[in-house]
Amino acid sequence: MLVGFNYKKKFGQNFLSDKNLLVSIADDASVSSNSQVLEIGAGAGALTQILAERAQKVVAIEIDKELKPYLELLCSKYKNVKILYGDFLKMEPTEIQAEFDDSFSVVANLPYYITTPIIFRLLESFDKAQTLTLMVQKEVAERFTAYVGTSEYGAVSIILQSQADIKITRIVEKTMFYPRPNVDSAVIHIVKNNSKYNIEDRPFFTQVVKASFNYRRKTLINSLQLGLNISKNVAESAVNELGKPLDIRGERLTIEDYIILAHILKEKLQ
Ligand code: SAM
Known about the structure:
270 residues; 7-stranded mixed beta sheet; 11 helices; binds S-adenosylmethionine
């Protein structure tokens, strides 16, 4: 607990201090003396310090300027740390990437209110970010890593797993944070893998997947019809061509099924 610091809920400020846990996060990320690391949300610098002790270079982003005194102290002690103050979601990816010589790792205890936008920004606009080791809410981690047929399986599971290998490396109890959040957390390790599947039109694939899960209680055909604004005829013949029953729901389809479905729909709509 930082005496005199006004923790801000609106910035998702749940800080860590347990040294063993912080070291384990750096282990999960395989940070070593030649690693260059980007941290999003430095807070008071607890994780930043552990990373600085191991890595060649750490660039950390922090939105809350009230944390400056803590972070300046850290920078005076560790010369391989640089703090950029601002909103990660509004900063230019090219400017952040210019801080690194080559590929880098992302390691962060993420602000939970923007976990998903941060991850998608890292995957889409940071080609030099090779691995992401991130603390997220446990239920979010379970959705990201969910398999077909489970209740956690959804659009985000498919969109993430279609471009990266993702695993949960550890579960972290809420008691490890200050202030204590309402739910437990998990550390996930994401390795980008764009050659995992051959997806010819990724934006359209994403659109098809999102449409299929937009209306949870409806059949896949109804969801596609509403979500893509297409006729029932087109939706029905696509599902038929895919070789699936007409009453199937979106959560029964694998990533491979969605790739084929997007291909069939694209041909039909051209
Ligand atoms: N790394 C620290 C730790 O583990 O103790 C703090 C983690 S705390 C969960 C998330 C941090 O992200 C907070 O310090 C918060 O101010 C910062 N933050 C929130 N939104 C941000 C944004 N859009 N851009 C950059 N930092 C942000």
